[in-house]
Amino acid sequence: MKKLIVSIALLTTVSAFKAQEKGIEEVTITGKLMDLPLKKSSVNVTIIDKAQIQNSAAQSLEEVLAYYTGMDIRKRGANGVQTDLSIRGSSFEQVLLLVNGVRMADSQTGHNAMNLPFDLASVEKIEILKGTAARGFGNGAYAGVVNIITKPNNTDNIIVRGEGGDFNSYAYGAASNFGTEKFRNFIQVNNSESDGYRYNTDYKIKNIWYQNNLAIKDGNLKLMAGIQEKKFGANGFYASPAAKDQYEEVQVSLVSAILEKKLSENINFNAKTYWRRAQDMYLFLRNNPSYYRNMHIGNNIGLDVSANFKSKLGITGVGADVRKEFLASSRLGSRERFVSQAFLEHHFSLFNESLNISPGISWTKFSDGKDYFLPGIDVSYNEDNNKFYANFAKVNRIPTYTDLYYTSLTEQGNPDLKAETAWSGEFGYQYQDGQNFLKYSMFWRKTTNAIDWQKATSTSPWTAQNVGTLETKGFEVEANHQVNNWLGYSFGYTYLENQHLDDKIASRYSLDNLRHQFVAKLKNNYKGLVNELIYRYNERVNLGSYNLLDDKISYQFKNFNVYVLVNNITNSEYVETSLVPMPGRWFHAGFTYNIKLK
Q: Most exposed of 12, 434, 452, 542 (fewest Cβ within 10 Å)?
């Protein structure tokens, strides 16, 4: 398998430089303090646009992310039931998830971070920022940031969708864009259900999402609001694989107002206020709630303001945000904390904008009195279609309430945990023209006071601990070649090496990471017929290797689209986390119909 990966990589890399150059569409990267053209950006960023999302063989947002190297998606169950999100060997607590720049972090546990009140039909674009992101986004942006962009479009329409598949799975929904040129609206409702691919893995997921955009003088005023409800059998999700009768119900709601205002020719101002509520009800025995039941209700309320100033010296960005985190839990108690953050960043260019430099620092203070200063710097040099870039920064993450206070027969939190901190760096090279893309990077992260759950013996409870120093290093290569208008292919490979902890102590998460990850895609688009074939090879440190093959074929006829997709074509047996067996081959077929109102 490793020889196959190397051979494909060399073949793609060589062919990627043979095509004729074409113009490159300018892409803007959304930052916390300032938006920069991709050419001037000095960070490792991946942009997934709407067409790529629609053509992929994915049933949920996390499955879209799994098709990109460096993204480790550890699922329990199928089709978005529950997922841990990791970037380059991080834990699921070390990635910051944003929706239109609004923080979706869950102070109870990172297991719930991917609960979002919309489905793929609402997503316009996904930005993945790997590496040293904390300076720009603050606490929690340890290994990277995923920002999901949603917005109304300019066409008045109604989109109806339906789907059916194996294991009595089905989904249906409707979405609509409507309004005037000045005031645009988008609303979506969606429902998906399945009996499950094995005992007690059934699920029901419902979403309602609304978003608008009001054009004001020199700016925009936006509102977004949504709610999601999940009910699912959690066979083996927690405790141990033998716990087959677990059950969970989760509700997540989000309300946010966003102001974007150009105060003058050189000054831009942004403000966001938000409220995220999460409710999590867990039963150890689905049919006997009185045996063991947990109920957690968390609320995060925040305000985020920022401004950037253009001058002869470059662009200076300043910002601050404050938030209050509340938790009422039958297992974790009543908890609350106040978090304050401030940010400063400056971007300037030299040598006809070939050299781009962005130093900055963020400051975070928690209500327990602890302060964290996180400095960093990004540098890049552009020449024609070539870019060399480097990042270096300090990052941190404070423990969640589950890390600190959770207690059960098999787990014990630790209220004395310290925040984990790390110095992180990356060096990379990128080539891009109209038909070709190549990126190579080397990265490392050295963590002190790393947090993990450990047990000294097989009968001991899992205990949250600061386990000392943990070093992660590796390299990544990505390539994309568009042969012609109807044929393209790409691949990505990530190698990771995590310093192992004491072999005599069992660790729950530190050795779950992917050592080798390879993703290859073959894309065809001919006269309305679109096909995308995706192959993945994953090798985990402690769970072995597996191969996955997915395919989606769709046909567009006027306003009607029909598709067939198959996940895990080869029916591979594999697990991603908690020793939960993942689904075998799964067929889906569906349609979308776009009704234009004007």
A: 542
Contacts 24+ apart (CB under 8 A), 320-328: 321/138, 323/103, 324/299, 324/300, 325/107, 325/298, 325/299, 325/300, 326/298, 326/299, 326/300, 326/301, 327/107, 327/108, 327/296, 327/297, 327/298, 327/299, 327/401, 328/296, 328/297, 328/298
Task: Give the C-alpha separation, 77 to 493, whole Å.
Answer: 25
Phi-psi region of 191 (alpha: psi -120 to 50; beta: other; left: phi over 0): beta
One-letter identity of residue 457: T
Q: Closest Cα to residue 167, out of 546, 567, 548?
A: 567
Question: Which residues on adjacent β-strands are paired with residue 326?
Answer: 299, 336
DSSP string covering 117-184, please? SS-GGGEEEEEEEES--HHHH-TT-SSEEEEEEE---SS-EEEEEEEEETTTEEEEEEEEEEE-SSEE
Q: Is the pLDDT of residue 450 over 80?
A: yes
pLDDT in tens, 292-313: 999 999 999 999 999 999 999 9
Which tokens go with 244? 């087959």
All domains of the chain in start order, with CATH: 2-596 (2.40.170.20)
Cα separation, 487 vs 530, whole angstroms:
10
Of all helices (H) and strands (E), which one includes residue 73? strand 71-76
Asked whether 250 and 420 are in contact (CB, 8 A), the reply is no
Is there a contact between 455 and 505 (Cβ–Cβ < 8 Å)?
yes
Report in angstroms the alpha-carbon separations of 379 from 117, 346, 389, 393, 598.
37, 12, 6, 12, 48
The burial class, CB within 10 Å (0-12 / 13-18 / 19+), for 459 is exposed
91-105: burial string, b at 16+ Cβ within 10 Å, e else: bbbbbbbbbbbbbbb
| Closest to 268 in 3D by CA, of 206, 317, 313 | 317
* H or E element that contains 389: strand 386-397
pTM above 0.85, yes or no: yes
Instruction: Tell me the β-bridge partners of 101.
Output: none
Q: What is the mean pLDDT of the chain?
A: 90
Burial of residue 384, with CB atoms counted within 10 A of its CB: 0-12 exposed, 13-18 middle, 19 or more buried: exposed
User: Could you tell me the end-to-end alpha-carbon distance of the chain, in angstroms, rounded to an integer?
Assistant: 53
Q: Which of 77-91, 225-239, 428-442, 553-567 has the lowest average pLDDT? A: 77-91
For 381-432, what is each residue's pLDDT tens digit?
A: 999 999 999 999 999 988 999 999 998 878 899 999 999 999 999 999 999 9
Tokens of 275: 């409220």
Name every residue whose Cβ is closer than 8 Å to that of residue 3 and which is 6 or more positions away in sequence: none
Cα torsion through 281, 199, 508, 459, rounded to 10: 100
On whether the CB atoms of residues 142 and 45 are closer than 8 A, the answer is no
